């Protein structure tokens, strides 16, 4: 009897442990998954995957044949590959060594014994992770198989770098930084975590005066300084533009933070041997570990601390999150005042970026962008107050206020007899899932006497997997009102082709990182063609965001990708500028103008 009980308890423990390695049920990134499937098939392997290695954790964004989301570093063969500091690592028979036979994936049925992996490095030498395959039977790869696996690993590294790393600095982008920060919160033996947000001042002048190349070189220089200061055991990231982030799991005292300020304050060299000093607002938040505060919230707290510093003159400044809670409360109070229509809190203003079909020389739409004209802070960008609205539960009210303003502008243009073009809107996740959204949109269309076909709602790629059934219901209801649906920022999220296939949409918007510089990068060009194929299969219009260069436009023309938006044609316009643009477009259409450059329409806008 005792033996039977012991046997049952042992079996239960084995089942619990095996549950970490259950068959994969999700559908990860389609491009990366395709490469892993190709590796498994060409190697004749049983399972395979991509591992992102960070300190004590292994994160696996893609697996084939087995589901691994996160494992301890000591349980993974990938940690041995990283420790070997070589680009290739193979264990022919894991049962032949005590250290490898003890790993759960070997010890537990079905007992995988043969491992082969290739280290993934970015173009700037950053280690991104590993591509690996495994077999249940022992064996050894032939030379041709090793070459094939290395070639596939290069494709994975290029794709990972585009998705998880910033193109200019090579550092982790915001999404990858937050993911690794979430893992860092669980570090064994660490008592405190310090998260920092760096906001450079003076950078925009470099871009404007010396051009983008000089700006990119400056960002790369600052990235190298921040990385060198943080050290190999810390986490750093480039959040976009002139903003960086870091996370420290060791010393984060005043002296170390002052060393960061000094590193940033060193002048940077510009063209013609000129120099310029950049400074930074640095916000930091400290949390005792373990903490229940989410990684994204920690980064937001550090950003709040940086935003509370104000003007920086002469040197970089550090401010710790804590006292700025009062500042955040004031900011939130002002935002609520805007939502309630209080004049003292300022007002929201709309700008619209034109969308063009350059093959037909036609204006095909506008994207609505909101700004906050604050009485003390001046022009506040959406990146500063939209997250605050979301975290405080006010994003639905904000989105409806923005939509009302857009509808008023559209009604005014129509009453003036101007041509009608559709306008696209960005809704937050909570708004898209709000049960009253269809009724609110319907009421607003009736109030301003607008056909639904003149409005387009953008659903970001990352939202596709969040409550898909509810999202599908909302989208279906909006389509019944005549609204168009666009998938925004496609190519940078974590969705999959199945999720896209279940959501009807009219337009696929390619994120700017797959458009800007596409003429110069074979990797970017190949990924663009994959996205273009998704649009063709879905019978959706492809719209390319972030067009700024003639050479990229010429490349898009050869790909028959004619619908674009970006500064190449026009920056975002206030309502009066749109009125001038529509009037010029109407005159052009009435005179049946042919040929010429559609950019001439934007000259007087």
UniProtKB/TrEMBL annotation:
SMART domains, per the entry: EAL, GGDEF
Signal sequence, renumbered to the chain: none
Residue runs in coiled coils: none
GGDEF domain: residues covered: 191-323
Domain of life: Bacteria
InterPro entries: Cyclic-di-GMP_PDE-like, EAL_dom, EAL_sf, GAF-like_dom_sf, GGDEF_dom, Nucleotide_cyclase, Rev_trsase/Diguanyl_cyclase
Domain EAL, first and last residues per copy: 328-586
GO molecular function: cyclic-guanylate-specific phosphodiesterase activity
Gene3D superfamilies xref list: 3.30.450.40, 3.30.70.270, EAL domain (3.20.20.450)
Listed CDD domains: EAL, GGDEF
Family matches, as PANTHER family: CYCLIC DI-GMP PHOSPHODIESTERASE PDEF, SIGNALING PROTEIN YKOW
Name of the protein: Diguanylate cyclase (GGDEF)-like protein
Organism: Pseudoduganella umbonata
């Amino acid at each position: 009897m005792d033996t039977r009980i012991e046997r049952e308890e042992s079996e239960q423990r084995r089942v619990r442990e095996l549950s970490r390695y259950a068959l994969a049920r999700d559908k990860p990134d389609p491009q990366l998954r395709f490469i892993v499937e190709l590796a498994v098939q060409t190697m004749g392997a049983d399972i395979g995957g991509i591992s992102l290695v960070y300190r004590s954790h292994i994160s696996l964004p893609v697996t084939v044949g087995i589901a691994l989301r996160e494992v301890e570093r000591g349980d993974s063969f990938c940690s041995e590959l990283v420790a070997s500091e070589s680009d290739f690592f193979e264990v022919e028979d894991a049962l032949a060594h005590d250290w490898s036979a003890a790993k759960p994936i070997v010890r537990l049925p079905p007992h995988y014994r043969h491992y082969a992996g290739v280290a993934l490095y970015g173009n700037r030498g950053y280690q991104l992770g590993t591509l690996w395959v495994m077999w249940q039977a022992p064996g050894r790869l032939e030379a041709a198989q090793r070459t094939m696996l290395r070639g596939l690993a290069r494709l994975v590294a290029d794709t990972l770098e585009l998705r998880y790393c910033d193109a200019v600095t090579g550092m982790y982008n915001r999404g990858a930084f937050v993911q690794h920060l979430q893992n860092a919160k669980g570090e064994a033996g660490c008592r405190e975590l310090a998260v920092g947000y760096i906001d450079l001042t003076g950078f925009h002048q470099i871009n404007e005066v010396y051009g983008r190349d000089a700006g990119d070189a400056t960002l790369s220089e600052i990235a190298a300084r921040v990385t060198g200061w943080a050290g190999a055991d810390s986490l750093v990231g480039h959040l976009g533009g002139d903003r960086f982030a870091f996370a420290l799991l060791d010393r984060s005292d005043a002296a170390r933070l002052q060393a960061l300020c000094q590193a940033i304050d060193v002048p940077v060299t510009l063209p013609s041997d000129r120099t310029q000093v950049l400074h930074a607002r640095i916000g930091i938040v400290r949390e005792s570990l373990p903490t229940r505060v989410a990684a994204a919230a920690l980064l937001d707290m550090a950003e709040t601390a940086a935003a509370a510093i104000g003007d920086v003159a002469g040197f970089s400044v550090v401010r710790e999150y804590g006292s700025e809670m009062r500042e955040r409360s004031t900011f939130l109070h002002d935002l609520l005042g805007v939502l309630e229509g209080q004049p003292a809190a300022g007002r929201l203003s709309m700008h619209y970026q034109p969308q063009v079909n350059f093959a037909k020389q036609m204006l095909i739409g506008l994207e609505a962008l909101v700004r906050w004209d604050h009485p003390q802070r001046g022009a506040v960008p959406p990146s500063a107050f939209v997250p605050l609205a979301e975290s405080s539960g006010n994003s639905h009210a904000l989105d409806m206020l923005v939509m009302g303003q857009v509808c008023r502008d559209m009604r005014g243009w129509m009453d003036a007899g101007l041509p009608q073009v559709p306008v696209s809107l960005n809704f937050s996740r909570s708004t898209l899932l709000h049960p009253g959204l269809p009724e609110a949109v319907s009421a607003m269309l009736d109030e301003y006497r607008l056909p639904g076909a003149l409005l387009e709602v953008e659903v970001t790629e990352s939202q596709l997997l969040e409550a898909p059934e509810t999202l599908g219901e909302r989208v279906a209801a909006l389509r019944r009102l005549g609204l168009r649906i666009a998938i925004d920022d496609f190519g940078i999220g974590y969705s999959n082709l199945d999720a896209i296939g279940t959501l009807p949409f009219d337009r696929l918007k390619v994120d700017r990182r797959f458009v800007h510089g596409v003429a110069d990068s074979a990797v970017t060009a190949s990924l663009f063609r994959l996205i273009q194929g998704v649009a063709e299969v879905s019978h959706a219009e492809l719209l390319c965001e972030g067009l700024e260069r003639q050479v990229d436009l010429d490349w898009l023309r050869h790909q028959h990708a004619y619908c674009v938006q970006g500064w190449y044609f026009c920056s975002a316009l206030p309502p009066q500028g749109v009125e001038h643009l529509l009037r010029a477009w109407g005159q052009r259409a009435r005179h049946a103008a042919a040929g010429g450059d559609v950019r001439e329409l934007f000259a007087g806008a």
